[in-house]
């Protein structure tokens, strides 16, 4: 046995300091500088959206027809749209749906996808083959097609589109998690747990899931970027969120008509915000993915 | 004669391959009594680890296992899933060659030690941790309370193997299967770990199946030795080391390096598969 040397004491001290800063520090380490910037921007947008009633200068739905299509001014920082509604206020309110809709899509897809992947990895054999088949078929169909089918059956609404896209995003998460789980399943610690008399379900959730969790999170965030774009596209087509509700995709569409009349402010503002959100999410997703890979 | 704790009778494990069949365990018979230790030695690929896997029924489904494996009179090969789980979690404990690979890297040492007690035995979490601390202390782990909060990567190999031994002892099994528990450790850690394992085993009266390719080590700490070659036990008994009788064992013991005399070249083992088959044919 060794006596505690100066070296090991120093190591212990460094480690304690690390631990004191905890979760925030670890997350920052994983995100890197660019990732932190992206996370900050996203956080600001999310907070503004969450507290929209306090932050937005105007009622997003109040039409001031006399001031329609006015350019940027001190009263309306980004100008007004064709109906004279304040664009900035509509952006803030619109971010709510643009963040929450895809967020819900990904949460559903991640839960369903992870469960499917774990089931496939644990059962193996025919179950695994069947799940892999279904995932491949789902993967081959563009997400927007699912949204369109759902709309065709249940009519255009946000809930329908979110449901359709959630199904489409299951394979995005499930395929990657299945691969990782299959790898973990072959690890000796799994057979050691099996030998200790743990049940298959127990091993799946207490042994395998914690080990694939970084991959689950990384994959979910990476898919979120795609979901934002697709949900905005569906809104743009007029099949998702219905007017007069403020939504970024819908704003691009209504702004599109104004562009032809020489007033591009609304379309540009909404389009830029979508791009900004997608950029942030993608950067964070990439950082999480590469740090999840380096853990292996 | 009373029934021994573990009895293997003519156990054969056959692997079905595309080109035919290959018998990897070829009629293994051995017994381990309550509180007895048996050293199973043999070269790589002789079927030592396969034997422990057969005992715990952890062989790949591609194997066909015949013969009889009886633990305390109950047939292991015909256990239903519930009985098998009970047998694995309560009756046998397994210590592996590479502790690092066999511990989940994202669980704290404390969780690893206590999870099966809390889940399967209904032991209170506090009580389980208290027992873990006592046991870690007994197997020579310093600052056990602190170790419980650490992750496996923060512990050295020797320390982790002690944790492994503690986890097996915590489950209070009647038989310990140790598959080369010291091979991945350096020499000083090896002797420490062996001494601790032996001390704890004797104190609790547990039976041990000790697998190694270190004849000396096995002879030093086991009541009986069994020598395996090509999926068969060629010789077993209490005095194998002092008075070997099978040609393979004699050659094996003759090939040991010694510190008493200087030799330029160690003898090469001439015993091979062909000799083995020939001897077998003669015997029958």
Structure description:
The complex is a heterodimer of chains A (296) and B (284). Chain A has 296 residues and is an all-alpha fold. Chain A has one domain: MetI-like fold. Chain A has 10 helices and no strands. Chain A has helices at 6-50, 52-55, 87-123, 125-140, 143-154, 158-185, 188-195, 200-236, 248-260, 265-295. In chain A, helix 7 packs across helix 8 (200-236), helix 8 packs antiparallel against helix 10 and helix 9 runs antiparallel to helix 10. Chain A is elongated. The relative contact order of chain A is 0.13. By secondary structure, chain B is of the alpha/beta class. Helices cover 38% and strands 24% of the residues of chain B. In chain B, the strands form 2 sheets. Chain B has a 6-stranded mixed sheet, sandwiched between helices. Chain B is globular, with a radius of gyration of 20 Å. The two termini of chain B are 27 Å apart. The mean pLDDT of chain B is 86. Classes of the chains: A mainly alpha (296), B alpha/beta (284). The A-B interface holds A 1, 187-189, 191-199, 202, 206-207, 210-211 and B 56, 58, 85-86, 88-90, 94, 96, 98, 101-107, 115-116, 119-120, 140, 142, 171. Chain B: Keywords: ATP-binding, Cell membrane, Membrane, Nucleotide-binding, Transport. Chain B: One of its GO terms (molecular function) is ATP binding. Chain B: Its main location: membrane.
Percent of residues in beta strands of chain A:
under 5%
Secondary structure: number of strands of chain A: 0
Sheet/helix structural class of chain A: mainly alpha
> How would you sum up the global shape of chain A?
elongated
- SSE order of chain A, one letter for each helix or strand: HHHHHHHHHH
The CATH level-2 architecture of chain A is identified as Orthogonal Bundle
Structural class of chain B: alpha/beta
In angstroms, what separates the terminal alpha carbons of chain B? Answer: 27 Å
Oligomeric state as shown: heterodimer
Number of helical regions of chain A: 10
The ordered H/E elements of chain B are: EEEHEEHEHHHHEHEHEEHH
Q: Which fold does the CATH topology of chain A refer to?
A: MetI-like fold
* Largest pleated sheet of chain A: none
Number of strands of chain B: 10
> How much is the average pLDDT of chain B?
86
Q: Main β-sheet of chain B: number of strands, strand sense, barrel status? A: 6 strands, mixed
Distance between the termini of chain A: 31 Å
Radius of gyration of chain A: 24 Å
Number of domains of chain A: 1
Number of helices of chain B: 10
């Amino acid at each position: 046995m060794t006596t505690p040397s100066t070296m090991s004491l120093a190591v212990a001290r460094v480690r304690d300091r690390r631990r004191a800063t905890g979760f925030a520090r670890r997350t920052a380490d994983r995100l890197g500088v660019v990732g932190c910037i992206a996370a900050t921007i996203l956080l600001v947008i999310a907070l503004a959206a969450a507290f929209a009633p306090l932050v937005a200068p105007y009622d997003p739905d109040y039409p001031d027809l006399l001031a329609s299509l006015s350019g940027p001014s001190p009263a309306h920082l980004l100008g007004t749209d064709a109906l004279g509604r304040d664009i900035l206020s509509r952006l803030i309110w619109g971010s709510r749906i643009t963040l929450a809709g895809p967020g819900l899509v990904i949460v559903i897809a991640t839960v369903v996808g992870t469960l499917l992947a774990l089931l496939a990895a644990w059962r193996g054999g025919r179950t695994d083959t069947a799940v892999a088949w279904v995932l491949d078929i789902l993967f081959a169909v563009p997400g927007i097609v699912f949204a369109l089918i759902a709309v065709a059956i249940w009519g255009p609404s946000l809930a329908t589109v979110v449901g359709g896209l959630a199904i489409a995003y299951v394979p995005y998460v499930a395929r990657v998690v299945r691969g990782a789980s299959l790898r973990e399943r072959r690890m000796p610690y799994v057979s050691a747990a099996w030998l200790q008399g743990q049940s298959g379900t127990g091993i799946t959730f207490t042994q395998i899931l914690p080990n694939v969790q970084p991959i689950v999170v990384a994959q979910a965030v990476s898919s979120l970027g795609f979901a934002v774009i697709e949900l905005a596209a569906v809104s743009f087509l007029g099949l998702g969120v219905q007017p007069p509700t403020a939504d970024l995709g819908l704003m691009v569409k209504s702004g599109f008509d104004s562009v032809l009349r020489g007033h591009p402010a609304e379309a540009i503002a909404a389009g830029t915000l979508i791009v900004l959100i997608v950029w942030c999410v993608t950067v964070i997703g990439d950082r999480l993915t590469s740090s999840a890979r380096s853990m292996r | 004669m009373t029934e021994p704790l573990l009895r293997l009778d003519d156990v054969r494990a056959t692997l079905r391959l595309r080109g035919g069949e290959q018998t990897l365990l070829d009629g293994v018979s051995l017994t381990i009594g309550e509180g007895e230790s048996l050293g199973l030695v043999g070269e790589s690929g002789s079927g030592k680890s396969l034997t422990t896997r057969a005992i715990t029924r952890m062989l790949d489904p591609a194997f066909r296992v015949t013969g009889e494996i009886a633990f305390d009179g109950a047939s292991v090969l015909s256990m239903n899933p519930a009985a098998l789980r009970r047998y694995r979690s309560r009756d046998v404990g397994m210590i592996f060659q590479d502790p690092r690979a066999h511990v989940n890297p994202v669980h704290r040492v404390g969780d690893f030690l206590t999870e099966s007690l809390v889940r399967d035995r209904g032991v209170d979490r506090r009580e389980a941790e208290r027992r873990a601390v006592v046991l870690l202390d007994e197997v020579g782990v310093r600052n056990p309370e602190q170790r419980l909060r650490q992750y496996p990567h923060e512990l050295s190999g020797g320390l982790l193997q002690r944790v492994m031994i503690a986890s097996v002892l915590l489950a209070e099994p009647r038989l310990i299967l140790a598959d080369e528990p010291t091979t991945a450790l350096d020499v000083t850690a090896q002797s420490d770990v062996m001494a601790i394992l032996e001390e704890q085993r004797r104190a609790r009266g547990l039976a041990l199946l000790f697998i190694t390719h270190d004849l000396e080590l096995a002879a030093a700490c086991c009541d009986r030795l069994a020598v395996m070659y090509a999926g068969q036990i060629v010789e077993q008994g209490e005095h194998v080391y002092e008075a070997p009788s099978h040609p393979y064992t004699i050659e094996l013991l003759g090939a040991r390096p010694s510190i008493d005399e200087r030799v330029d070249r160690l003898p090469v083992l001439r015993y091979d598969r062909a000799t083995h088959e020939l001897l077998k044919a003669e015997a029958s």
